[in-house]
Specification:
With 422 residues, the protein is an alpha+beta fold. It has helices at 2-50, 57-63, 78-81, 83-98, 100-128, 170-185, 188-201, 206-231, 235-252, 270-281, 288-311, 355-361, 414-421; strands at residues 132-133, 143-146, 153-155, 161-165, 262-263, 318-319, 323-327, 332-337, 343-346, 350-354, 372-376, 379-382, 385-387, 390-394, 403-407, 409-410. Strands 1-2-4-3-5 form a five-stranded mixed sheet. The chain has a five-stranded antiparallel sheet with strand order 8-7-11-14-16, with no helix packed on it. Strands 6-12-13 form a three-stranded antiparallel sheet, with no helix packed on it. It is elongated, with a radius of gyration of 30 Å.
Length: 422
């Protein structure tokens, strides 16, 4: 009895190991494809935001939505069925299949980065809970006072918090708090969190980490424009407040508040600050309807892109339309049946074999001393990565010219069912 239990535990942990190994290789492969595509996407975004969209505050910010479809590009037919696609992308598939330890490194790297980002956010929010409330200005979210020079910022998706320095005038505090409230109301904190998720999933793409700075710059310009228009603030006064806070921050040598948050005047660079001030002074009101129409059009375009990508990608589970005949004597596959000529069909209990076609495609069948192995059915997630299916053995001496029926042993267990669902 104890031996039987030991065998069951051994089999369970072996199956679990094989399952985790499959999942690791599968997700590292498809996420790696997404990562390669994202490199091209970011290159296009940076090119467009610096040329055609350089003068359009809302257009530049909307461009970053083009990164989202990259997350759905992991199973494109292009990688396996197109000559150009194979040359450009197949190398990643080869690396993942040949050196599976790299798949583990990919998954482990994403987990480590996720833990780091979560702990960083948790540490920041834990510290904010120790700060005193700022009572001079009322806002829609809690306002905390930092006991030193700092760039005012907001953080927290579900429970947003605004932080301002203690050495700030009431007028400046009023403008800055409204600026941070604009970040919250326009969903910028959720965009920042979403970008961190993309960084975790596609972490080997170093451009994702570099471009976070440019994403924040574009969101700050959007926030400036919305805040000025929403409150009717004079552009010169607003720019002066930004410049004063940037100067104080520069003199203090601190960049606090820029991590996992949206900051009002963080110490980015003089050139970026100058461009931002120029945008503020040149600000012209834009009708809300125009903004909503533009945003809606961009969202529709992104959804259309995702739908189009789905149409040219492999399904979650694809049936394996091929059977194989394996010679145990020769230890090699002797027939790959792609047109159901040898294995005419199969069901959950039996495999049906055309004996005449078997002898035609493998004339040496009657010379086999050991049983022939038949593999049928199964599934694949992408070509080369799959499982399941059934199998059966045939005694070569029983091969006739008619239809031969052998027992079908189905390998689709709970692990394969989970994999098919993934």
């Amino acid at each position: 009895m104890s031996g039987g239990k030991h065998g069951m535990f051994t089999a369970f942990f072996y199956d679990l190991y094989q399952f985790l190994r499959f999942v690791c290789v599968y997700y590292a492969t498809i996420l790696g494809f997404c990562m390669v595509i994202s490199i091209w996407a970011l290159g296009i975004i940076m090119l467009l935001r610096g040329t055609l969209f350089s003068k359009y505050v809302y257009g530049k910010a909307a461009l970053w939505m083009l990164v989202v479809p990259c997350l759905f590009c992991g199973k494109l037919h292009l990688y396996f069925e197109n000559r150009v696609g194979v040359r450009l992308f197949y190398w990643w598939y080869y690396i993942c299949s040949k050196f599976q330890a790299l798949c583990l490194i990919y998954i482990a790297g994403g987990i480590i980065l996720a833990v780091y980002l979560i702990r960083r956010r948790k540490k920041l929010h834990g510290y904010l809970n120790t700060l005193d409330d700022y009572g001079k200005v009322r806002g829609s979210s809690p306002i905390k006072m930092f006991p030193a020079e700092i760039s005012s910022f907001c953080t927290g998706c579900f429970y947003p918090v605004i932080v301002v320095p203690e050495n700030i005038t009431d007028d400046q505090a009023e403008v800055i708090v409204r600026h941070e409230e604009t970040h919250i109301k326009t969903g910028h904190l959720w965009i920042e969190a979403g970008w961190e998720i993309i960084r975790v999933l596609l972490w080997p793409n170093i451009l994702l980490h570099i471009c976070e700075r440019f994403l924040k710059r574009d969101l700050e310009e959007v926030c400036d424009a919305v805040t000025i228009q929403r409150l009717g603030i004079d552009q010169a006064d607003y720019g002066q407040i930004l410049l004063d806070n940037a100067r104080k921050l520069s003199l203090s040598g601190k960049r606090s508040g820029t991590v996992s948050s949206m900051s009002f005047a963080w110490d980015d660079s003089y050139r970026a600050l100058r461009k931002r001030l120029f945008r503020i002074t040149e600000h012209k009101p834009v009708r809300k309807g125009t903004i909503y129409i533009g945003l809606s059009a961009m969202l529709v375009m992104v959804f259309i892109m995702i739908a189009g990508i789905k149409q040219v990608s492999y399904a979650r589970t694809n049936p394996m339309e091929i059977s194989s005949v394996f010679s145990v004597d020769k230890m090699e596959t002797v027939i790959l049946d792609t047109d159901s000529s040898v294995v005419t069909h199969f069901d959950d209990e039996h495999i049906y074999i055309d004996g005449r076609e078997l002898k035609k495609q493998y004339p040496s069948v009657n010379k086999e001393k050991k049983e022939l192995y038949f593999g049928v059915g199964g599934y694949y997630k992408i070509p080369g990565i799959g499982g399941g299916g059934g199998w059966g053995f045939l005694d070569p001496s029983l091969v006739t010219d008619g239809i031969i029926t052998i027992e079908n042993h189905n390998d689709t267990d709970i692990w394969n069912m989970i994999i098919q669902w993934l």
